[in-house]
Amino acid sequence: MFAVILLLVVCSVLLYWCLKTNNYWTKRNIIQVDDMMLKFLFSKHSMPEIAKDIYDKHDGRHIGSSLGSKPMLMLKNVEDIQAVLAGDFQSFHSRGLVLNSNDLLADNVLFMNDFQRWKLTRQKLTPVFTSSRLKNMFYIIEKCACDFVTFVEDNPQLRHKPFDMLYTYTTASIGASVFGIDTNTKNTMDSPFMDMSKKSIEPSLFQTVSVFLSDTFPTLFKLLRIRVFGEVEDFFISTVKKVMESRKHDSQKRHDFIEICLELKKQGTMQDLATGYELEPTDELLAAQAFFFFIAGADTSANTMHFTLTELASNPKILTKLHQEIDGILKNESDELTYNDIDKFQYLDKVLNEAMRKYPPIGVIQRLCTKETVLPSGVPIEKDVICMIPVYAMHRDEKIYPNPDLFDPDRFDTDLQSGKGKYSYLPFGEGNRICIGNRFARLQVKAGLARLLRRFTLTPQEYKPITFEKSPFGLRAPDIFYELKPRDV
Question: Counting CB atoms within 10 angstroms of each CB, which of 54, 136, 246, 456 has the fewest?
């Protein structure tokens, strides 16, 4: 009986919100479509696919809808997108995700909405990804890439599930970059963080319901004190605390993330010199920043490698050209891959750019308006309105990228790209909240693919994914299969 009453209450509230927002944009002379959160909830498709379908069906610079209790405006105009991500950042600094203060990982990481807290944390994390830091850290990535290929060669059964194989590499290499390389481990691919990473990122009923409640019933979401990453919180925070404690008196320079955390702890209270805002570098705050590596990088990088290999299997001429580049740089079996070598993989860089165009790691970006403003196109945006940037749809827009379904790395030649604004290519986002780890991700992915394709090639096959796994933000198709074959080199 209680379940029936609860269902009736939920349906009644849903009906109320739908009626409340179903003409919000129509009254402002903007095309309005049905609530996108409900579409996602009762659909088998990912949110990026739903957004693309709406994007393709309607002309104009904007498309109005709603996400649960909030009006939502889908942006198609590049000037508006630039304003939301950068130019008018003060009005759009929030991702618009409701979080609970008891959620020690989610509320202290890239989802945080408190502007001052986010700004100061970002300031302190940015130096982690400078060229000098990444150069010092690269030995970890190179060691993991070599171990990855050895792992694949020694365990041929891994090739039956290529996505899981790649996920092993991205998770293990992030784990080693955060916690350092365990000298007692024979192969860095033997990582204790695999299950944790998958539980945190893989689409699930809990994830879908959490996003739905956050957007549609934010008060209920807070009352229930839902923790997005609650299942892994204790494990990860305790791990970070143990490692930091064991490393307090270690004088050896490891150039991993824990070393950065220890430096921040040693410096004491963090302060924003411009505003005077202060924040203590607690174990929980620093653990959340370490956790950021996993949730922002493990799944997205694995998907990027996965879709890249899928397209290479479908395009043998491109694969051959890429093999030639890799063989020219890694001429001998014993050749060490250095940080400076990564820049030499220019064709691999174009291949990755094209893979992330067709399959962007994050297919939709959303920002919450925190104060009334006006977009460059003249549309007034009220407080608490969400602006959605349909990245996947834009990357497949033939007006921006001619013949968008064709996999063509050469479209990323400098001269061809010079006429396109950077706000129409958004694999890592853009502006003030651009993915802070994008340079690390490129190193990780390029090193892994270069090592793998030096030793393996792909059986030619044609694959055209029709649909993707149900996910609120990303594009995933983990069941795609392609055959890796050892090369005679």
Answer: 246
Say how many CA atoms lie within 13 Å of 111 toward its Cβ. 22
User: Token pair of 88, please?
Assistant: 């008018």
How many CB atoms are closer than 10 A to CB 56? 13
pTM: 0.89
Outline where 162-229 has alpha helix (H).
Answer: 162-179, 194-201, 205-216, 218-223
Q: What DSSP character marks residue 26?
A: G
Residue located via tokens 């498309």: 63
The size of the chain, in residues, is: 489
β-bridge pairing 373-374 and 365-368: unpaired
Centre a 10 Å sphere on the Cβ of residue 389 and count the other Cβ atoms it contains: 24
What does the alpha-carbon distance between residue 379 and residue 377 come to, in Å, rounded to a whole number?
6
CB neighbour class for 400 (10 Å; exposed up to 12, middle 13-18, buried from 19): middle
Range of the domain at 225: 2-486
- Half-sphere exposure for 388 (CA within 13 Å, toward CB): 31
Dihedral sign for Cα atoms in the order 47, 353, 409, 147: negative
- Over residues 141-188, the pLDDT tens digits come to 999 999 999 999 999 999 999 999 999 999 999 888 888 877 667 788
416, two tokens: 């061809």
Residue 211 near residue 470 (C-beta atoms within 8 A): no
Residue for token pair 């944790």: 196
Residue 99 — very low, low, confident or very high, per pLDDT cuts 50/70/90? low
Return the number of other C-beta atoms located less than 10 Å from residue 259's C-beta.
19
The rounded Cα 116 to chain-centroid distance in angstroms is 23
Distance of CA 113 to the CA centre of its chain: 18
Burial of 440 (0-12, 13-18, 19+ CB in 10 A): buried
Q: Are 45 and 470 in contact (CB under 8 A)?
A: yes
Q: Do the Cβ atoms of 439 and 137 come closer than 8 Å? A: no
Our count of domains for the chain comes to: 1
Residue 11, marked binder: no
Q: Is 316 exposed, middle or buried (0-12, 13-18, 19+ CB in 10 A)?
A: middle
Write the DSSP string, 364-407. -EEEE--S-EE-TTS-EE-TT-EEEE-HHHHHT-TTTSSSTTS-
Q: Say how many C-beta atoms besides its own lie within 10 A of residue 58's C-beta.
A: 15
Which CATH number covers residue 234? 1.10.630.10
Adjacent-strand bridge partners of 374: 380
**Rounded mean pLDDT of 221-237?**
75
Both tokens of 213, joined, read 């409640």
In whole angstroms, give the CA distance from residue 254 to residue 4: 58
Per-residue tokens: 465 = 């994914």
